[in-house]
Specification:
Elements: E1 2-5, E2 11-13, E3 29-37, H1 42-50, H2 52-58, E4 62-72, E5 75-82, E6 91-102, E7 105-114, E8 125-126, E9 128-140, E10 143-153, E11 156-157, H3 160-190, E12 216-217, E13 226-227, H4 233-237, H5 249-252, H6 258-261
Parallel strand pairs: 1-3, 6-8, 11-13
Antiparallel strand pairs: 1-2, 3-10, 4-5, 5-6, 6-7, 7-9, 7-12, 9-10
Helix pairs in contact: 1-3
């Protein structure tokens, strides 16, 4: 678990990425962490994780995201894609997501499904969320703790340096991104359809209905598995350039931000 404490800026790490042998390239990645936010309410964090138009403002790694359709008043199906630095291929998900207010706390979970009208795309690797969840726990009128857990199959043999970077830098950075976005959300929302929150008010949901029988569980072994284990870290860092031949260290941090950025 990673604990990010707002006031101390300290990071306490236990093993976050689990595999049978971390000396080998891994195919499954497991991340769990929490961030303590003493000046953001649980409801605000919950809204930020749901609000798609706002996500387009703060999630710089996202290529596209959209809701496909609704299943129930608190469940839907959606699409999310994000960019990875070359030579790694960009990834995407199709997931079923459900959410539930628990008094002053909130829960969001998702897992990958197959939708007949949204098959894998030519220029993306279809990754698989085996299970992803957020628990937003209220600790006061204007304070909260965000817990996050995910197990993802990125559908590729990833080099060890990618796994290490996710553990040490990318995952904590992504949680801080959510926190910073939560701080700015109330002001943004006041100017952008402040009353529109279909995740809280189901009567506002205008998505088409999805027939549950059209969905099946997305099994990782039914998708193409690509080998990216030869990707070299130094080449990815480049010399500060941002073209196809070289990517800056900042861009490299975008590699697998998927593990903490997708609520889909």
């Amino acid at each position: 678990m990673i604990e990010l404490h707002r006031n101390s800026n300290s990071v306490h790490e236990r093993p976050t990425l689990l595999s049978p042998d971390l000396d080998k390239n891994v195919s499954l990645v497991f991340v769990q962490m929490r961030i303590v936010c003493k000046d953001v309410s649980a409801e605000t964090v919950y809204d930020v994780l749901h609000d798609t138009p706002y996500r387009r403002k703060w999630d710089a790694n996202m290529i596209d995201t959209y809701d496909i359709g609704r299943l129930t008043v608190n469940a839907d199906v959606g699409y999310y894609s994000w960019r990875c630095p070359p030579p790694l291929k960009n990834r995407d998900f199709v997931t079923m997501r459900s959410w539930l207010p628990l008094g002053n706390d909130y829960l969001i979970i998702n897992y990958s499904v197959k939708h007949p009208q949204h098959p894998p795309k030519k220029d993306y690797v279809r990754a698989v969320s085996l299970l992803t969840g957020y628990l937003i726990q209220s600790t006061g009128p204007s304070s909260s703790t965000l817990y996050y857990l995910t197990q993802v199959d990125p559908k590729g043999s990833l080099p060890k340096w990618v796994v290490n970077r996710v553990s040490q830098f990318v995952a904590p950075k992504a949680m801080r991104k959510i926190y910073k976005a939560s701080l700015k959300y109330p002001e943004w929302k006041r100017k952008h359809n402040p009353q529109l929150k279909p995740w809280l008010y189901p009567e506002q949901n205008s998505l088409p209905s999805v027939d549950p029988s059209a969905l099946t569980l997305q099994r990782a072994d039914s998708l193409e598995n690509i080998d990216e284990s030869a990707a070299n870290e130094e080449k990815q860092r480049g010399k500060g350039g941002r073209g196809r031949a070289g990517v800056s260290s900042v861009d490299t941090d975008h590699t697998l931000i998927l593990y903490t950025n997708s609520t889909r």
